[in-house]
Amino acid sequence: MFFTSRQAMTSNIAWQRHGCYCLGSQQYFNMPLDKAVIGCQDDWNSLDHFDPTSDTRRLFAQFNYLRTIYGALQDGFDLVQRGNWTYQIQRPGSNGTATEMGLWSVSRAAIAGVQTLNGVFNDQVWLLFMNENVTQTYTYDCKQSLWISSPFESNTTVQNLFAPYETYTLQDSLSSFFNNSQAPWYGCLPSITMEPFSFKAFVPVDQWVPPLPALTRYVPGHDARIQVEAGSANATSLDISFEFNTPMNCDSVTNAMSFNMSSSGIGGNVTVLQSSIVCSNVTNPILPTISGASFSVWSWSATLQNVPDGILTIQLDNPASTLANATTTGVRITSTQRHWCTHERLYRLLTRSWSGRVPPPM
Predict the structure, then answer these.
(1) Which residue, of 190, 207, 224, is where some domain finishes?
(2) d(Cα 184, Cα 149) in Å, to the nearest integer?
(3) In this structure, is residue 2 part of a structural domain?
(4) Considering the entire predicted model, what is its pTM?
(5) Contact between 222 and 314 (Cβ < 8 Å)
(6) Which residues are CB-neighbours of 34 under 8 A, at least 6 positions away?
(7) How many domains does the chain have?
(8) Which stretch of DSSP H or E encloses residue 199?
(9) What is the pLDDT of residues 121-134, one digit of tens each?
(10) CA-CA distance, 70 to 64, in Å (whole number)?
């Protein structure tokens, strides 16, 4: 039996209509078909899915941005397994094939004398990853054989390249860094907590580079449908907000916003109600469901007025962060499609993005 897993990206009712799988599986043991058998009942499947605020998009953009900064992540061929703290299990239906579970420590660097890297930083990068489906804390004595080994010298402070960007100071191990039984020693991580299926990438703190500004959330939401009663007081107004992964310049976000309206001709020119603009820190962000993805720290919100029926494109043209020389590299968002529907107006909110300046997501 052949299974295919494909999700339409553009809005298409056909993908919802044939979204209920009914055949089961003889090949895959206890295959979790939960959502697949009721997909035709889920209206989300017929929505547009080009969402620039999605966790996966931001995470892959960060992957590729880091490759432009750290040469080892782009081209380093020297992959060294520093250690693993794992155990074997037998999963039901695995026919006796064991699965290794736990934590791995790996470093990646250029092959000395063979490779020349071209990143901003070309030293090694330390990677930790685990494959357990529960949050797990790994704690080991740095003077014992199971110590969590790093490729750096002890007393080095390292910082995670992925959210939440935490730092650790490495302790002395009993392994000589220059293999001469003397100090300095290889750095040891005495304890670390890993969330389910999580990963971390560490560099010395003086080589750490913050992530590029990115949209993390858009309200009312990507391809959301909002019904407004004809003749209601707020029939031509719409509250919107944008959240970012880094503090932004409020005036820059406001000035970077422009509108292109494709409408039925009923209504006026879309404008931002200046007195409604609120810029603030996000104190209780919605955390991403994927390990390492950035989360909201700052928001811009306001009310749009004179919004007619039709398709509204909102463009954020490189709004500036409060970080030096940082912008969103040209985010364009297509938002708000409104249709007449008998006596109601149906708002359909779409978002898209475009990246056009170095360093681009690849």
Answers:
(1) 207
(2) 14
(3) no
(4) 0.85
(5) no
(6) none
(7) 2
(8) strand 199-204
(9) 999 999 999 999 99
(10) 10
